[in-house]
Amino acid sequence: MKKCTAYIVDDEPLAIRSLTKKLEDFPEIELVGQSTRMPKAIVEIETFKPDILFLDIQLMEGTGFDLLNQINFAGQVIFVTAFDEYAFRAFEINALDYILKPVSNERLKSALEKLSDKNIDNNKQGIRYKITDRILILERHNMKFVLVSSIEIIEASRDYTTIKTSEGKSHLILRSMREWEESLPSEHFIRIHRSYIVNINNIISIERTSSSTGRVFLKNFTNPITLSRTYYKNARINYL
Fold first, then answer.
1. 3-state class of 153 per DSSP?
2. What angle do CA 237, 214, 154 make, to 5 degrees?
3. Does any domain span residue 231?
4. Residues 112, 16 share a domain
5. Which structural domain range is residue 185 located in?
6. Which segments of 56-200 does DSSP mark as H helices, in order?
7. Any idea what the CATH number is for the domain that residue 67 is in?
8. Tell me: the pLDDT tens digits for 24-70?
9. Considering 2, 19, 21, 172, which has the largest number of Cβ atoms within 10 A of its Cβ?
């Protein structure tokens, strides 16, 4: 593995010292900074631009999620946590890795070995998201968290897809419609066209235009979305 820079954020000084000591066994990792406070960490991460961020969940000023939402970061995140079932599931799906405290040398080695895979935004484990999950996505070399429940529509765009959320934001990411179908909770999302997946909770009505096609009217969208022949049967079972 090539040499990488790393930064540690943890509100426990002893945890930072312990992890720093363990990283000495990995000469390919250069520690460029550490912090117990979120404001300092935000400034230094933006300045140093580390390849790896070792991030605790519970910080003095918020959570690791809150920190990531405030920075432009293109590296890999390895979460380090004592216990948190919600975060445990989210990290297992989205992050490069998570490590439960106390950190063992074997577990740290296993996490660092994953650095050869640079594709953060994937769902290789085949785990289906919950509606309450927060998805960690890579967009234009920046990482962002998106609540699954906030996704209103997903639109295909060649090899990419565009997520439109209830906050009025759009995110263009490298992920196929099939990958979204396999990972989104099927009780909350439905594919209505080869180019569209919609949040069922945002459907106002479905209007038939023929015996096997229709138009789907959504909240916050002026124009209806076409319900194609291929996906009509699925929508008909649920709504028509």
1. strand
2. 85
3. yes
4. yes
5. 134-239
6. 64-69, 85-94, 105-113, 177-183
7. 3.40.50.2300
8. 999 999 999 999 999 999 999 999 999 999 999 889 999 887 888 78
9. 19
3-state secondary structure 43-63: HHHHHHCCCEEEEECEECCEE
Residue at a domain's end among 116, 151, 167? 116
Reported as a single tens digit per residue, the pLDDT across 160-214 is 999 999 989 999 988 889 989 988 998 999 999 999 999 999 999 888 888 888 8
Question: Which tokens belong to 96?
Answer: 């490069």
Give dist(CA 61, CA 70) in Å, integer: 12
Task: Report how many domains make up the chain.
Answer: 2
Structure tokens at 63: 């959570």
Residue 235's contacts (CB-CB under 8 Å, 6 or more residues apart) are 190, 192, 206, 214, 216, 227
Let me know if residue 123 belongs to a domain: no
CB 155 within 8 A of CB 170: no
Contact 192, 228 (CB under 8 A): yes
Q: Are 18 and 63 contained in the same domain?
A: yes
| The Cα angle at residue 89 between residues 85 and 93, in degrees rounded to 5 | 165
Among 57, 86, 116, residue at a domain's last position: 116
